[in-house]
From TrEMBL:
GO MF annotation, one: ligase activity
This protein's GO CC annotations: nucleus
Domain PHD-type: 1-60
SMART domains in alphabetical order: PHD
Pfam family membership, one: zf-HC5HC2H
Species, as recorded: Burhinus bistriatus
Superkingdom of origin: Eukaryota
Protein name, per record: G2E3 ligase
Key words, A-Z: Ligase, Metal-binding, Zinc, Zinc-finger
Length: 223
């Protein structure tokens, strides 16, 4: 980790020009590096799944859907006009190929809709979600922000189990205390997995935890 941090400190962000760029384009032979906050300004893409690959503006994945929005096409979320040309900021549904969104709008929708994320026009889920993930949209694994607290509470009750590879709790995986080493924390992203503090080496000061599926192994988001 020390060597990786040292290497990053010598990498210059091609977007802002400052040092400390920790992300490098995954295209073989490309040496462009950038800061995560600079990604959008530099029209870069980071895929928040699998290997968490990142690409610069030149090598990022591009949609195969319509060449360009028709004139006067609007974003189905904000109802404002989208660019009348194919670009980084205009995204189309790959299923119906008639729904257009601003990248920033569909990203906000993905966070709020969570597991209910889908095309607002044709209601396609599978093809739409895969395409959005590939294009760099991060999708929350939580239930929609508009669902009631009672519904969310039922989900939390349903997943009251320690999913650590090796559960060290003497009382078993289902034991959950209010505090201490056997306090059970649910994944802050999906709430579908849990862990005892001691089973995942979490300090008392750490209030949140993410499972491997949500954080991605080796991303530094969890212990």
């Amino acid at each position: 980790c020390h060597r990786v941090g040292l290497l990053c400190s010598f990498q210059r962000c091609f977007v802002c020009g400052e040092m400390g760029a920790a992300i490098t384009c995954q295209k073989k032979g490309c040496t462009r590096s950038f800061h995560l906050p600079c990604a959008s300004k530099g029209e870069c893409v980071t895929q928040f799944f699998g290997l968490y690959r990142s690409f610069c503006w030149q090598h990022r994945p591009k949609q195969e859907a319509p060449e360009a929005p028709e004139q006067d096409s609007i974003c189905l979320i904000c109802l404002e006009l989208v660019e009348d040309k194919k670009s980084y900021h205009a995204m189309a549904c790959p299923a119906c190929k008639r729904a257009w969104f601003h990248r920033s709008c569909i990203q906000k929708q993905a966070v709020h809709a969570g597991v209910r994320f889908r095309c607002l026009d044709c209601q396609n889920t599978g093809q739409f979600v895969v395409e959005m993930l590939t294009m760099g949209i991060r999708i929350s694994k939580r239930f929609p922000s508009w669902e009631s607290e009672d519904e969310v509470r039922l989900v939390h009750q349903r997943y009251s189990l320690c999913n650590a590879r090796r559960c060290r709790c003497p009382g078993g995986r289902q034991r959950a205390e209010e505090e201490g080493p056997w306090q059970l924390l649910l994944c802050s992203s999906c709430a579908a997995e849990g862990t005892h503090r001691r089973c995942s080496y979490l300090r008392n000061s750490e209030a949140t935890w993410e499972c491997d599926s949500c954080a991605g192994l080796g991303t530094g988001k969890r212990h």
